[in-house]
Amino acid sequence: MSEIQKKVKVHVEKVNKSYGENHVLRDISLDIAENEVVVMIGPSGSGKSTFLRMLNQLETPDNGTIVVDGFDISEKATDINKVRENIGMVFQNFNLFNNYTVLENIMLAPVELGKLDKVAAEKKARELLKTVDLVDKADVSVNSLSGGQKQRIAIARALAMEPDVMLFDEPTSALDPEMVGDVLEVMKNLAESGMTMIIVTHEMGFAKQVADRVVFFEAGKIQESGVPEQVFNAPKNERLQEFLSKVM
Ligand code: ADP
Ligand code: MG
Q: Which residue numbers delimit the ABC transporter domain (predicted)?
C-alpha cells in the first residue's frame, strides 16, 4: 500500500530558549507541512515572536532541532544566509527602507543577493505590485504610504525572493482598523496560492477562515493545537478557553 506523505517544510523538535532566568520556550515540537497555513495565537509574552524569530535564526535556540526545507539550521555547517533567502518574514512595523521608493524596496534584496539582475528584479517587482494591488505606487517614496499600504509592500518585498515559507508576526497589529482587511486579503490570496505560512495574529476571524491549523501558545508551551473548528469551538485546554473568552 502506498501512502501519500506531505512534505515537511519546517520541523521543530524539543526546542528550548531562555533569556537569563526567563524560560521562554519550553520543549516546543511542531511540524509544518508544505502548503500548510498555521496560525499561532496566545497571550502577549507567551513566546510566539521568539518562536518565529528562531525559524530564520534571528534568535538561536538553547537546544533542540530546527529543520527548514531540509536544512538543519541548528547545525553550525549550515549556510544560514541561504536558508534565510527561502524564508520571508513580515513584521508588525513593516521594516521598510523609508527613504527608498516602493519599487526600490522590492528590488533591493534580489539584486543585492545576486538572485536577479536589475531588469528582471524590476519586472518581478511590478508583477508583485499587482499581487498586492498597489501598481500605481511603484515610484513613490514609502514615507508617503499608509500603514496598510506599507504592510502590503513589505509582503511584496518578502515575496520578491521567492521564498518557500512566509512568516508573519502580527502583521496587522499596528494598523488602523480600516487598513486591516486589505492586508488580510493579500495574505488570504497568498494562502490560496499554496504558500506555506506561519502567522501570529489576533485576528480570530481570519484564523478561522484561512488556517489549516491553529496553535495556542501559553507560557512558552504549545498548550493545544488543531483545526480551527476544534480550537475555537471545542477548546479542551483551560487556558485556551480563558484566552478565547477574552478575545472573541
Ligand atoms: P510574544 O510574541 O508571544 O508576545 P515574545 O516571544 O516576544 O512573546 O516574548 C516571550 C518572552 O521573552 C517575554 O517574557 C519577553 O519579555 C522575553 N523576551 C523576548 N525577547 C527578548 C530579548 N531579546 N531579551 C530578553 N527577553 C526577551
Ligand atoms: Mg510577539
A: 10-244
